[in-house]
Amino acid sequence: MDYQIVVLSGDGIGPEIMAGGLVALQAIEEVFQHRFQTTDYPFGGAGIDAENDPLSSRTLAACQKADAILLGAIGGPKWSKAVKTPEMGLLQLRKALGLFANIRPIQVPDSIAHLSPLKAEIVSGSDFVVVRELTGGIYFGEPRHWNDKEALDSLVYTREEIRRICVQAFELANKRKKKITSIDKANVLSSSKLWRKVVEEVALDYPEVTLEHLYVDAAAMLLIQKPTSFDVMVTENLFGDILSDEASVITGSLGMLPSASHGVNGPSVYEPIHGSAPDIAGKNCANPMSMILSVAMMLRESFSLEQEAAAIEAASNRVMEAGILTTDLGGTATTTEFTEAVRQEIIKGGRG
Q1: Is 245 a residue of the active site?
Q2: Which entry of 78, 84, 179, 185 is annotated as an active-site residue?
Q3: Per the residue annotation, which of 110, 205, 217, 279 is the catalytic one?
């Protein structure tokens, strides 16, 4: 079977880590005899430079027809004053594809637990997923305005927006440890009061899943104190943005973590959770793990290729256990050296 994949390398370190992800994908293609058709399109700052638009109609049309989309990273100071910034292009893409569910798995392999800013005994064994609502909330609410004297942002959620992200989270929890932590600020925010009510309604359809509620400030503290206590966390857009970035730090590096964004229908987007890191772009030192693992997520969640996804994850872990680490994890390996080591492990694993 042929799989049609749109590649949006983007800006900064995006092209470098995307290259690493595609090397891993090519190794899977070789070992498992699949055909992955990848086509690059300009996006973000690269889209502005090439087509005067971070998300051109040509790029959007290709994304809408794809089986899946791989995204590197976008943005940088070069485009901060653009009429339409790279970040606006990303929000437009999410809206156009109806990407309402952002899935961010957080795992701390034993091989790098000692590199966490927290004590190894606190983070070791951490394995949870942040499920973030992606198209509602304060990022998109209207009205909004600002001037020199005042500013207004509106936090708006509908029952249906809340329900569909909760169903996504409960379905995921049902396949894991059957525990959901819903995060809100229901003691203060009206939107959170509706959120909590709808979460409890959805929970009735999943009696085997345990539901707990946490206020967002308590959740932020518990993430640091006891990250192993979480399994699936579900929350609204702004809280999810902040908490997933906080959670990512316990691994020791943002460069480790992938994510997926799903809609009701159509293609999903797979991307690292970090930004474009323009300060290290072109230096061949960025950690490609986040992109490589995003490829693994794509294989599993869009194409149902579980064995292939597991092969990438196992190869990556073996490389790190062997002490081959990029500079963000205290090692000396370049981006290309780390990528090549993963490629060789995938091939070696495939040959038995």
Answers
A1: yes
A2: 185
A3: 217
Determine the distance from the C-alpha atom of residue 56 to the mean position of all C-alpha atoms in its chain, rounded to a whole number: 23
Which member of 157, 241, 270, 328 is catalytic? Answer: 241
Question: Tell me, what's the pLDDT at 255?
Answer: 85
Told to judge if 206 belongs to the known catalytic residues of this protein, a careful annotator would answer no
List the catalytic residue out of 40, 127, 153, 245. Answer: 245
Range list of H helices, 78-236: 86-97, 120-123, 159-174, 190-203, 216-225
27-50 confidence digits (pLDDT tens): 999 999 999 999 999 999 999 999
pLDDT of residue 351: 63
Q: Which of 78, 84, 139, 153 is catalytic?
A: 139
Give me the pLDDT at residue 162, please: 98
pLDDT at 6: 98
Whole-structure pTM value = 0.89
Residues 6+ apart with CB under 8 A from 28: 34, 36, 299, 305, 308, 311, 312, 346
Under-70 pLDDT residues of the chain: 351-352
Per-domain residue ranges for the chain?
A: 1-105+257-352, 127-249
**In this predicted structure, what is the pLDDT of residue 109?**
76
Q: Which CATH class is domain 1-105+257-352?
A: alpha beta
Q: Is 217 labeled as catalytic in the residue annotation?
A: yes
Q: Which residue has the tokens 């474009």?
A: 276
241 catalytically annotated: yes
Q: CATH number for the 127-249 domain, one of 1.20.120, 3.90.105, 3.90.25, 3.40.50?
A: 3.40.50
Q: Strand 232-235 vs strand 127-133: parallel, antiparallel, or unpaired? A: parallel
